[in-house]
C-alpha cells in the first residue's frame, strides 16, 4: 500500500481499485457495497431503487461538447442506467473556489439544468461550500442519484459466462482525448467533441430487446480495458477482444498515438459495454444500432473460459496480447 | 449579485441563500427543491423517502471530538432526520489531494464506518477522485443519504404559527468554536469538543411524544439565528427569543466574545431547533430532556404574528433587538 495518495489513485485503474478495496470497502463492508457495481440496489418497500454517486473535478471546466455541469448530470445518470434503472432524482453538491466568476457558476448550473431535462431527472436537493482561493480549481461537483428499477433482471459484472458476446455502444475515447486537447498541452487540433450523453434511454431499448444482457458498465475512467478487466475478474472468465472490431475515430487514434496511450484506456462519458448471452447478441446489436445514440455500436469480443480473469486482445496483426487494468494516470482529471 | 464567489457565499447565511436562490433554484426549479428544506421528500411507489446531500470541507481534518469523516456521516444523517426519516443508506464521495498520507484516509474511513454504525446507516456506494497537490486541502467529502419516512406528519419551515414554542435540543456553538480553537489562531485553550452526533433517535422520540411538531432544522452553518430566520420568513411570522434561555457553555461564550461573534450564529453539528404547537410544548421538552442527547434541551422562544419575517431577541438586559441572518463569514470552513 502506498504511503501517500498519488494521482494514480484517482485514475480509475489498478491503484484506484486497490485503494477502494483496502481502505473503503475494508471500512464500510456490507452486502450492498461489496459487489462494487456502478450503483447500489436498494429495497425500501416499493420498487427496487438504484443509488449512486460521482464527484467531478474535470479540468478545464468548459470543453468542446460539454462542461463539468453536463458531465456531473450524465455521469450519475449513467451509473444508474447501468442497472437498467430509470434515473429520477439527483442531488447537486458544489465545492466552489473563492474568486470563481459568478457567471461561470450560472453557466454550469444552466448546463446541469439542461442535461437534467434531457435525461428526465430532477435536481431536488443540494449543497454549496466555498473554499479559499487556491484550495480548489474553480469548482468541483458531486452528484448522487436515485432511480427506479422496473424490470426483474439481475445485472452484474460477475454474471458473464463463456460464450457471451461483448458489445460497445459506440466509438471509444472521444471524451478523454477532447479534454487533453482542450488543455492545449498537445500541439494538435482535431475536430473532436466529448461524447457525454445520458444513456438510460438506449439501455431501456437494449434491455427490452435483449433480456439476456448479463452486465452493463459505462466505460469512464480507465476506459473499456478497465471495465472489461472488472468483468473478467468478477466472473472468473476470459474476455477476448478483436482489435479491428473496436470502433475508434481517426482523430482519437491519432491523438492517442501522440500521447502514447492505447484508446482502450481512454475514458468515454457516453459509451457503455454490454455483455450479452449469445442467443440475444443479434437482437442487442440491432436494438443499439437502430437508436440514434447507438448507430456505431459493435460486437467487439467474446467471453471464454480461459485464461480466467484476463482480457486478451487479438491484434490487427494477428497476434494476441494481455490487456491489463490501467496502471498510472496518463490522463488526469478527465472527469 | 456579486461578480465573483466569496467565502461569504459558503457561510450558510445571507449570501449563501441569495446564491442558492439566484443561481441554483433559478436553474433547477421544481416543486421538490423549491421549499429549500434540509431534504427532499420523494414518492417512488413505496414509503415516502427523504433524500439529501452535504459536502464537507472542514479544516483541520481532525479536531477535538471528531473529524471530517464523522461529520460527513452525521451531517447527512441529520438532514434526513429533520424530516423525521429513519436514515438508511449513504454514499461517500471523496476528493483527495495528492500527497495525503494514506493513514489519514484510513483513519477518516474508519471514523465514517463507526459513525455509520452508530447512526444505523450503511455506506453502499461511493466515488474517489484525486486532484493535484495544492488543488484541494487534504480531502473533501460529499455524502448523500436516503431515509424512510414512516410517520404521516408534514414538517416544514413554512408551518410555524403564532403561539408556537421554539425549542433547542442542547447547548449551542460547541462545534464552530471547537474548530476555530483547533486551528490555533486564537491564543486560548478551552475544554471544548465538537457536538457532532446523529440526531435521528432523538427526533424519533420527539415526534412520538409531540405530533404537534411543525418544523425541525439542525443548526449548522449560520447557527440558530440563521435557521430561525428561515422559519420566520417561510412562515411569515416573528420568532421572539429569550436570550437568557438559550443554553451556551461558558467556554463558548468566552471564545465567542474574543472572536467578536454572537453564539447564536455559531454552527452546531448535533443540535436542532424544533418549532412545536403550544399544546405539545411540555411533552416535547420532556421527550428531549429524558433522552441522553437532549438533557440540556430548552424552550428558547415563541412564535408571534408580528413583526412578520423577523427574529427578535429579548436581551438579558431587558431590551429587544433584531437578529438578522448571518452576513459575511466569520468562521470559514467549519464543516
Ligand atoms: N470512497 C468510496 N467509498 C465507498 N465506495 C467507493 C468509494 N469510491 C468508489 N467506491 C465504489 O467502488 C466502485 C468503483 O467506483 P468508481 O468510481 O470507479 O466507479 P464508476 O463511478 O462507475 O467510475 P467513474 O467514477 O470513473 O465514473 C463502485 O462500486 C463505488 O461505489
Ligand atoms: N448547489 C445547490 N443546488 C441545489 N440546491 C442547493 C444547492 N445548495 C444548496 N441547495 C439547497 O438549499 C437549501 C439550503 O442548503 P444548505 O446546505 O444551506 O442546508 P443544510 O445542509 O441544512 O445546511 P449545512 O450545509 O450548513 O449543513 C437546501 O434545500 C438545499 O437542498
Ligand atoms: Mg460507471
Ligand atoms: Mg461513474
Ligand atoms: Mg448543506
Ligand atoms: Mg440542515
Ligand atoms: Mg446539512
Ligand atoms: Mg465513480
Short description:
Chain A is of the alpha+beta class and 335 residues long. Chain A is built from 8 helices and 14 strands. In chain A, the strands form 3 sheets. A 7-stranded mixed sheet of chain A has the order 9-11-8-12-10-13-14. A 5-stranded mixed sheet of chain A has the order 1-2-7-5-6, covered by helices on one side.
Question: Which key phrases capture this entry?
Answer:
homodimer; 335 residues; alpha+beta; 60s Ribosomal Protein L30, Chain: A; Phosphoribosyl-aminoimidazole Synthetase, Chain A, domain 2; 2 domains; 7-stranded mixed β-sheet; 5-stranded mixed β-sheet; 8 helices; binds adenosine-5'-triphosphate; binds magnesium ion
Percentage of residues in helical conformation of chain A: 25-40%
Shape of chain A: globular
- CATH architecture label name of the largest domain in chain A: Alpha-Beta Complex
Radius of gyration of chain A: 19 Å
Number of strands of chain A: 14
The largest inter-chain interface, given as chain pair and residues per side, is: A-B, 82 and 81 residues
Bound molecules: adenosine-5'-triphosphate, magnesium ion
| DSSP helical segment count of chain A | 8
* CATH class type of the largest domain in chain A: Alpha Beta
Explain how this protein is built.
The structure is a homodimer of 335-residue chains. Chain A is α+β, with helices and mostly antiparallel strands and 335 residues long. Chain A has 2 domains: 35-149, PurM-like, N-terminal domain (60s Ribosomal Protein L30, Chain: A); 157-322, Phosphoribosyl-aminoimidazole Synthetase, Chain A, domain 2 (Alpha-Beta Complex). Chain A is 29% helix and 25% strand. In chain A, strand 5, helix 3 and strand 6 form a beta-alpha-beta unit. In chain A, helix 2 packs parallel to helix 3 (102-119) and helix 2 (68-81) packs parallel to helix 5. The longest helix of chain A is centred in the N-terminal third of the chain and has 18 residues, at 102-119. At the A-B interface, helix 1, strand 2, strand 5, helix 3 and strand 6 of A face helix 1, strand 2, strand 5, helix 3 and strand 6 of B. One adenosine-5'-triphosphate sits between chains B (12, 16, 20, 24, 28, 33, 36-38, 54, 75, 79, 220-221) and A (92, 94, 123, 125-128).
Amino acid at each position: 500500500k502506498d504511503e501517500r495518495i498519488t494521482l494514480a489513485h484517482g485514475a480509475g485503474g489498478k491503484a484506484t481499485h486497490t485503494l477502494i478495496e483496502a481502505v473503503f470497502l475494508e471500512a464500510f463492508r456490507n452486502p450492498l457495497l461489496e459487489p462494487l457495481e456502478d450503483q447500489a440496489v436498494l429495497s425500501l418497500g416499493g420498487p427496487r431503487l438504484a443509488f449512486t454517486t460521482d464527484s467531478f473535478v474535470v479540468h478545464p471546466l468548459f470543453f468542446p461538447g460539454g462542461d463539468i455541469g453536463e458531465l456531473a448530470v450524465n455521469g450519475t445518470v449513467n451509473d444508474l442506467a447501468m442497472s437498467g434503472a430509470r434515473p429520477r432524482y439527483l442531488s447537486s453538491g458544489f465545492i466552489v473556489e473563492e474568486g470563481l466568476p459568478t457567471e461561470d457558476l450560472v453557466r454550469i448550473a444552466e448546463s446541469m439544468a439542461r442535461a437534467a431535462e434531457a435525461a428526465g431527472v430532477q435536481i431536488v436537493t443540494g449543497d454549496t461550500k466555498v473554499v479559499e482561493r487556491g484550495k480548489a480549481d474553480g469548482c468541483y461537483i458531486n452528484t448522487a442519484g436515485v432511480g427506479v428499477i422496473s424490470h426483474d433482471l439481475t445485472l452484474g459484472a460477475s454474471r458473464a459466462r463463456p460464450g457471451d458476446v461483448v458489445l460497445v455502444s459506440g466509438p471509444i475515447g472521444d471524451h478523454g482525448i477532447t479534454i487533453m486537447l482542450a488543455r492545449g498541452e498537445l500541439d494538435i487540433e482535431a475536430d473532436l467533441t466529448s461524447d457525454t450523453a445520458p444513456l438510460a434511454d438506449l439501455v431501456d431499448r437494449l434491455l427490452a430487446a435483449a433480456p439476456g444482457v448479463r452486465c452493463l458498465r459505462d466505460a469512464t475512467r480507465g476506459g473499456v480495458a478497465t471495465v472489461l478487466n472488472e468483468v473478467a475478474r468478477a466472473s472468473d472468465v476470459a474476455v477476448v477482444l478483436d482489435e479491428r472490431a473496436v470502433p475508434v475515430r481517426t482523430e482519437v487514434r491519432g491523438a492517442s498515438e501522440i500521447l502514447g496511450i492505447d484508446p482502450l484506456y481512454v475514458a468515454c462519458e457516453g459509451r457503455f459495454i454490454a455483455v450479452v448471452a449469445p442467443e440475444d447478441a443479434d437482437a442487442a446489436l440491432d436494438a443499439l444500432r437502430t437508436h440514434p445514440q447507438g448507430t456505431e455500436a459493435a460486437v467487439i469480443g467474446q467471453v471464454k473460459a480461459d485464461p480466467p480473469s484476463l482480457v486478451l486482445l487479438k491484434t490487427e496483426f494477428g497476434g494476441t496480447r494481455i490487456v491489463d487494468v490501467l496502471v498510472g494516470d496518463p490522463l488526469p482529471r478527465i472527469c
